[in-house]
Design goal:
Number of strands: 12
Structural class: alpha/beta
Helix content: 40-55%
Largest sheet: 6 strands, parallel
Low-confidence stretches: none
Distance between the termini: 64 Å
Shape: globular
Radius of gyration: 21 Å
Strand order of the largest sheet: 5-2-1-6-7-8
Number of helices: 17
Mean pLDDT: 95
Order of helices and strands: EHEHEEEHEHEHHEEEEEHHHHHHHHHHH
Length: 390
């Protein structure tokens, strides 16, 4: 009997990365989602393909041995699936984590298996599984008398994921095209004294923080900087943006600043970090991905957050008295990413720039305090953006 994984989120990352790697390790995958059309497609399509895009030639994998459940209408079925699963993963987006927690909590409470369930959130945010676990452990989701023994039924492990999923063809159906490179690193310490689940694609580590910050402050910082500068200059894709010598130089300057932080904070060697940066620039410059700047830049409010790709490293550097000029420039471009079709956050940002004063925006959007060294500089940037919008 194959091991079973329940995955929340049937989108491109779910189908094209998480489920693909679970499938490769012999897991039956149960997709859980609330989008009726997507669930019906999964239920009536016995297989789909994942195409790994590489300049040297594409690789096509066929994914089978899965099923799908609509959690909106079939909550009891989801609980039943989780009660007998080995692992639960999710790729639903940071804002949806709280919505799936009650159902996972209910399922965990029913478990009687000898090994605890492995819960791993696969989201683009620091401490995503901790956040999910926090919601699961709330009194309204897990009774207080059951909280003390929850580790017997479930273990929660943070992860860092890295794989670029470009925009998909409109008639692709369930098929996904995705870059060939990937990284899936998970903290193994919560599973002791048990072994973590056997997933070949996962790199299990004792300290996840260096991997999370290196990825967020290199891949996400560089990708988003290229997107925001590219959008400002009318570029269509990230590859086109990085063909612009000025944008390319600016992205490298952003990554020089974040590399300085990563090397000094985590003890990663300069040569290793430089090699990583070169790999990332090559990846995001891949013209075969056809990665549209508006897709990469979407959700600017989240990406301007305190723990995110620009403000996070800039704050560290500012407090240490180190340079973060290029990161401030990228933040300014992100603040200009407003009223972009299909991106609700960009419209919300545009409204905030018109209705709120600069200090309030710096506090609310960037999570900075008046006492932070970079507060005044970010405030000046916001004022400059607001002045241009008038």
């Amino acid at each position: 009997m194959s091991p079973k994984a329940v995955h929340f989120g049937g989108g491109n990352i779910g189908r094209g990365f998480v489920a693909e790697k679970l499938h490769e390790s012999g897991f039956e995958v149960v997709f859980v989602d609330v989008v009726e059309k997507l669930i019906e497609q999964l239920q009536h399509t016995p297989e789909y393909t994942v195409t790994e895009i590489d300049g040297d030639g594409d690789k096509v994998s066929t994914i089978t041995n899965y099923k799908a459940v609509n959690s909106k209408d079939h909550e009891a079925d989801v609980v039943k699936e989780i009660s007998s699963a080995d692992i639960v993963t999710c790729a639903v987006g940071p804002t949806v984590i709280r919505l799936i927690a009650p159902l996972i909590a209910k399922a965990i409470d029913t478990r009687t298996a000898s090994l605890p369930l492995a819960v791993i959130a696969c989201e683009n945010m620091i401490g995503a599984t901790d956040t999910l676990a926090g919601y699961i452990k709330r009194p309204q989701n897990t009774p207080e008398d059951r909280l003390q023994s929850i580790s017997e039924r479930a273990r929660f492990a943070n992860s860092a994921i890295d794989r670029i999923v470009p925009g998909q063809d409109p008639d692709a159906g369930l098929d996904v095209k995705i870059e060939s490179f990937y990284e899936w690193v998970v903290d193994k310490t919560p599973f002791a004294p048990h072994n973590p689940p056997e997933v070949d694609a996962i790199k299990w580590v004792d300290d996840l923080t260096p991997y999370i910050e290196r990825k967020l402050y290199t891949v996400n910082t560089g990708h988003a900087a290229a997107a925001y500068y590219g959008h400002a200059r009318g570029k269509h894709t990230i590859a086109e943006a990085l063909e612009d010598k000025e944008i390319h130089a600016i992205v490298r300057e952003c990554l020089a600043e974040t590399s300085h932080l990563i090397v000094n904070k985590h003890g990663i060697s300069v040569s290793e970090q430089n090699e990583y940066v070169e790999k990332i620039i090559k990846r995001i410059s891949n013209p075969h991905l056809e990665d549209v700047v508006e897709r990469v830049g979407r959700a600017p409010l989240r990406k301007l957050g305190r723990q995110e790709r620009f403000v996070g490293p800039a704050h560290h550097l500012a407090e240490q008295g180190d340079k973060y000029t290029a990161l401030l420039g990228a933040m300014e471009q992100a603040l200009n990413f407003v009223d972009v079709e299909g991106d609700d956050e960009s419209f919300e940002l545009g409204k905030m720039l018109k209705s709120m004063d600069a200090p309030s925006i710096v506090s609310k959007v960037c999570g900075l305090k008046n006492s932070d060294r970079m507060f005044a500089e970010v405030e000046a940037i916001v004022q400059r953006v607001q002045k241009k919008k008038k």
